[in-house]
């Protein structure tokens, strides 16, 4: 197991200290949400996930991977120090995605943003570095998520530390899926 980056000083706040959420609902600076248009014909469908000419250079993917999440399964919350994620939710299930701005220098610091994405609302979502995020399969079938991050997992040749702060491992985390 690789060592984890040290969380920012704000990441270790405990929800036990206060029953009120430390977050305000609203959009988060730098999060980009786009509709994924499905082109459907008798053969099935096709959707463009991203185009380099429509992405800022800082978000150009370096790799991609696909994951399947069973109904009710949650991934996260976690955040990255240097990595941005470009998630694509196209089905066959639906997901609740939640993001928390954990960047003290951001205009939207301490904002929380919730999306419902997937089969009923196909979207791509860019999550900038420093924005904690999680998603849960709220459907009744396994759901597929594609991620196209702008950094290689463990760097070139898998020789670097994993860029992930795993808030899901903290039982007192302030990053929760419920309001």
Quick recap:
With 179 residues, this protein is mostly beta strands.
Which consecutive residue ranges, at least 5 long each, have pLDDT under 50?
1-18
CATH topology of the domain at 31-152: Jelly Rolls
Q: What pattern of helices and strands is seen along the backbone?
A: EEEEEEEEEEEE
Mind telling me the C-alpha Rg? 16 Å
- Distance separating the two termini: 33 Å
| Secondary structure tally, helices | 0
Please provide a written account of the structure:
The strands form three sheets. The protein has a five-stranded mixed β-sheet, with no helix packed on it. Strands 2-10-7-12-5 form a five-stranded antiparallel β-sheet, with no helix packed on it. It is globular, with a radius of gyration of 16 Å. The chain contains no helices and twelve strands. It has 179 residues and is mainly β. It has a domain at 31-152: Jelly Rolls, CATH 2.60.120.10.
């Amino acid at each position: 197991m690789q060592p984890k980056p040290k969380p920012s000083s704000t990441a270790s706040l405990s929800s036990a200290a206060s029953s009120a959420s430390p977050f305000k609902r609203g959009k988060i600076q730098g999060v980009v949400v786009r509709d994924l248009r499905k082109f459907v014909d008798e053969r099935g469908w096709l959707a463009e996930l991203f185009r380099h000419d429509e992405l800022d250079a800082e978000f150009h993917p370096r790799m991609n991977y696909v994951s399947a999440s069973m109904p009710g399964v949650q991934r996260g919350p976690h955040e990255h120090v240097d990595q941005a994620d470009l998630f694509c939710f196209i089905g066959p299930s639906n997901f609740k995605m939640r993001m928390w701005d954990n960047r003290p220098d951001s205009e939207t610091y301490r904002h929380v943003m919730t999306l419902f994405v997937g089969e009923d609302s196909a979207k791509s979502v860019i999550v900038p570095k420093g924005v904690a995020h999680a998603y849960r399969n709220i459907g009744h079938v396994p759901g597929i998520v594609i991620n196209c991050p702008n950094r290689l997992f463990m760097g070139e040749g898998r020789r670097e530390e994993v860029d992930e702060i795993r808030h899901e491992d903290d039982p007192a985390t302030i990053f929760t899926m419920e309001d």
